[in-house]
Specification:
Elements: H1 10-13, H2 15-29, H3 35-56, H4 60-87, H5 95-101, H6 103-114, H7 131-163, H8 166-178
Helix pairs in contact: 2-3, 2-7, 3-4, 4-7
Length: 180
């Protein structure tokens, strides 16, 4: 089965475990019927789904906008994890420590790199059973996703600048049709 182009993007692939782990984290540590639970899960979902939706837009302008929405959603989610750490007196580790001590980060990246597109059921490791490790895992993954989106958005803007957008394409097609 042919996969969509966005499924090859690291910026998209890293958001899949972010969403999956956020659901597990929220179910584990945040009251299920709370607004925070719903908002964190929706922010994680938005971070993933807006990349896919943007890729499917007919014009680059829409893709840029939705990639920005994905970035904003992930920033919101990052702040929720930071707030959770603050409210529960958990340490936020430097990036180097998180990468060194949380083995799941390396395992996740091995899966992302090994698979050009993620299988329907990627074999991501289980979320550790420690709120401090979980928070630091999630903060690290979100920073990595944000970094990738911060590179994707300027490349989309450059593509729009050099190749134009849907409006120009439609205008040029109309001019050609009318014989201008």
């Amino acid at each position: 089965m042919k996969k969509s182009g966005y499924e090859y993007l690291l910026a998209y692939k890293i958001t899949v475990p972010i969403y999956d782990y956020t659901v597990v984290f929220c179910d584990r540590f945040i009251e299920k019927r709370s607004r925070t639970h719903d908002q964190m899960v929706q922010a994680a979902r938005s971070g993933m789904q807006n990349i896919a939706e943007g890729y499917k837009e007919q014009g680059t302008k829409g893709y840029i906008k939705l990639a920005g929405v994905a970035r904003g959603s992930l920033e919101e989610l990052l702040n929720d994890y930071r707030s959770f750490a603050r409210q529960h007196n958990l340490s936020i580790w430097p990036k180097e420590r998180a990468i060194r001590e949380i083995r799941e980060i390396g395992e996740i990246w091995e899966i992302l790199r090994k698979n050009r597109v993620l299988p329907d059921h990627p074999d991501f490791p289980y979320l550790p059973d420690s709120s401090e490790i979980d928070v630091n895992l999630m903060i690290t993954l979100i920073h990595q996703a944000n970094y990738l989106l911060d590179r994707l958005i300027p490349s989309l803007k450059e593509r729009h600048k050099t190749h134009g957008g849907l409006t120009e394409e439609l205008y040029n097609a109309r001019k050609t049709y009318r014989g201008y």
